[in-house]
Design a protein that fits this description.
It is built from 24 helices and two strands. It is mostly helical. Strand 1 and strand 2 form a beta hairpin. Belongs to the major facilitator superfamily. Sugar transporter (TC 2.A.1.1) family.
């Protein structure tokens, strides 16, 4: 937007500085998602959400009211930190308050809500860009660098004294300010939500945990199923405490935290870290074609604003057709994400991920072949343009119902309660780190590499397929306390006897592996 360039000419005229401004959010978010692991173990899941909503509101306000690029950078850093914390804690909170039969559906709904938000944000930004017109000063000729033979807008010379006379600053301040309202709704809503029953038990607040479970399950606190679920959580907490106490007796909070970190080096936890990071990492890497072509990615959908019109315009399409395709692409992403949310607890995680990776692989091979065979002349071939568009939309469908829907589900459910927050603080940053690296390095690479970028994405899809096929356990139907069974963790005789003793002490039957 030219009015944005008039307000921030240093950003508008410096692509490298612009890339760093965009990437600031990802850098801060990766730090926030890592730091929040220890914090929300102390404050609780609900309080963590409330605190970080407040931080996000501060960051968004800084961006909305920014008068120089330094305030814009600061706002993106503050908001990014809060977003990192929220992407860490919200999926975990949903997993801990839901039952096994709807856990995947509820976490997938979070991704669906994010997708809807990004698409609506695109349309709002597109609509507000016409406030006051599309030019800063319609009567002032352009003096900027030539693009396709014509000069472009130069904010250092093409802005009249007193500022823009056409497009107003509302064209970009309004969409930035509107993001305050969903955050406010989330923050206010959390005042009416209970805290995680698991966290309450870990905090020695079993009575509150019982009342919370009663409220969540809509059954009396003395109902057998509510009591049974509470005792299962208590058994897991008690077992972890007794094992930890046997290893490091009389340890203070600092030593206990260090022990928790060191525990992730064990074979049992290393596999879970690997499985937890893979969906997020593969999700981001498989969606590089989105980031660079139409950019409908997990947490990068907002970048569709930057890249989609450019790519579709390379197909010799009109501006109206380009805008229509970009908007339609976002709508397809929404409607294709919904089946994944519905099927994740019925078909399971593995079938959706496998079919999605296979479909994405085929689409990328087709696109890479077209670009390689026809070279830079493919946009002038009507049939090839149609094939590219069809492949993009098919890729969108395969990606949306599988990796886009399930990327947050698996990491949120595979770690034991005592280690869950720290475990997610290791897996969640992979989203933002991948985002950061792609934002800075890949646009130029795709422009110069031709079909190679598509083939690289195809290889990533293939690796994702193989990883799920041979490494991922099926977690559908397992309670959070049963993930050891899902992963086939080996239990020694002493560990089994220890767990059985705790179960007997609490009046629980010794558990058999659940049927799924």
């Amino acid at each position: 937007m030219e009015s944005f360039g008039a307000a921030f000419p240093d950003l508008y005229m410096n692509p490298i500085l612009t890339a760093w401004c965009v990437s600031t959010l990802s850098i801060a978010a990766s730090f926030g998602s890592y730091a929040n692991g220890a914090v929300c173990d102390k404050t609780g899941r609900r309080e963590s959400v409330k605190h970080n909503v407040l931080i996000f509101l501060i960051g968004s306000s800084l961006q909305t009211g920014a008068t120089s690029s330094k305030y814009l950078f600061a706002g993106r850093a503050v908001a990014g930190y809060a977003l990192g914390c929220l992407t860490h804690v919200i999926p975990m909170y949903i997993a801990e308050i839901s039952t096994a039969n709807i856990r995947g559906f509820l976490i997938s709904l979070l991704q669906l809500a994010l997708t809807v938000g990004f698409v609506v944000g695109y349309w709002i930004a597109d609509a507000t860009s016409y406030i006051g017109g599309t030019r800063c000063a319609p009567g002032v000729p352009y003096t900027g660098p030539l693009l396709t033979g014509s000069p472009t807008f130069n904010p250092y010379h093409d802005v009249p004294v007193g500022g823009c006379t056409g497009q107003t600053q509302a064209s970009w301040r309004v969409p930035l300010g509107l993001q305050l309202f969903p955050a406010l709704c989330l923050g206010i809503g959390m005042f009416f939500m209970p805290d995680s029953p698991g966290w309450l038990v870990e905090s020695n607040r079993e009575g509150e945990a019982a009342q919370t479970l009663s409220r969540l399950r809509r059954k009396p606190a003395d109902d057998h199923s509510v009591r049974f679920e509470l005792l299962e959580i208590m058994a897991e907490v008690r077992y972890t405490r007794e094992v930890t106490k046997a290893i490091i007796p009389n340890a203070g909070p600092y030593r206990l935290f260090i022990h928790k970190l060191v525990s992730f080096g064990s074979r049992k936890m290393t596999k879970r870290l690997f499985v937890g990071c893979l969906p997020m990492s593969f999700q981001q890497n498989m969606s590089l074609v989105h980031l660079l072509i139409i950019n409908v990615t997990h947490f990068s959908l907002e970048a569709i604003i930057y890249y989609a019109p450019l790519v579709f315009s390379q197909m010799n399409l009109s501006d109206n057709t380009t805008s229509l395709l970009v908007g339609l692409f976002g709508l397809v992403n929404i409607f294709a994400t919904l089946p994944g949310a519905i099927l994740v607890d019925r078909m399971g995680r593995r079938p959706l991920l496998l079919s999605g990776a296979a479909g994405c692989f085929i689409c990328m091979v087709v696109m890479g072949t077209i670009v390689t065979v026809y070279g830079p002349h493919w946009p002038s071939n009507g049939v090839m343009v149609q094939a590219i568009i069809a492949s993009l939309f098919l890729f969108n469908i395969f990606f949306s119902y599988s990796w886009n829907s399930i990327g947050l589900v698996i990491p949120s459910e595979i770690f034991p309660l005592h280690y869950r927050s720290i475990g997610l603080s290791f897996t969640t940053p992979s989203i933002w780190i991948s985002n950061f690296m792609a934002t800075l390095s890949l646009p130029g690479f795709v422009e110069k590499s031709g079909g190679l970028a598509y083939y690289m994405t195809a290889v990533t899809c293939l690796l994702g397929f193989l990883a799920v096929k041979f490494l991922f356990p099926e977690t559908k139907g397992y309670a959070l306390e049963d993930m050891d069974t899902a992963f086939g963790s080996k239990v020694t005789d002493s560990e089994r006897e220890h767990k059985e003793r705790i179960y007997r002490d609490l009046g629980l039957p010794v558990k058999a592996p659940p049927t799924v």
